[in-house]
Automatic annotation (TrEMBL):
It comes from Ligilactobacillus salivarius. The lineage of its organism: Bacteria, Bacillati, Bacillota, Bacilli, Lactobacillales. SUPFAM superfamilies: BH2638-like (SSF158504). InterPro entries: BH2638-like_sf, UPF0223. This is UPF0223 family protein. Pfam families: UPF0223 (PF05256).
Length: 91
């Protein structure tokens, strides 16, 4: 179930730059699931996000929190974008 008016899961030890990178990626996941995104831009933002969150365990935790808050799965969104070869993709 997709929710409105929620906050993004952020970590207190992140720098301002890391928070911006994470928020931009979360916004891309939302756009993918609602209006669609440019595949290359989405994957670039995902790579930036992975630099902020290199730990698989932390990635999974943030994905669970994000899905609980928003209704969107980061994992499923990334998986589907990677599988699709089109320039513009939508979930």
């Amino acid at each position: 179930m997709v929710k409105e008016n929620y906050s993004y899961p952020l970590l207190p030890d992140w720098s301002t730059e890391e928070i911006i990178i994470a928020c931009e990626f979360y916004a891309e996941v939302e756009k993918y699931n609602t209006n669609g995104v440019n595949r290359e831009e989405f994957l670039d933002k995902y790579q930036d996000f992975l630099k902020v969150v290199p730990s698989k365990m932390l990635q999974k935790r943030l994905d669970r929190e994000y899905e609980k808050l928003s209704g969107y799965s980061i994992y499923q969104s990334v998986k589907k974008v990677k599988e699709n070869e089109k320039k513009f993709v939508k979930g």
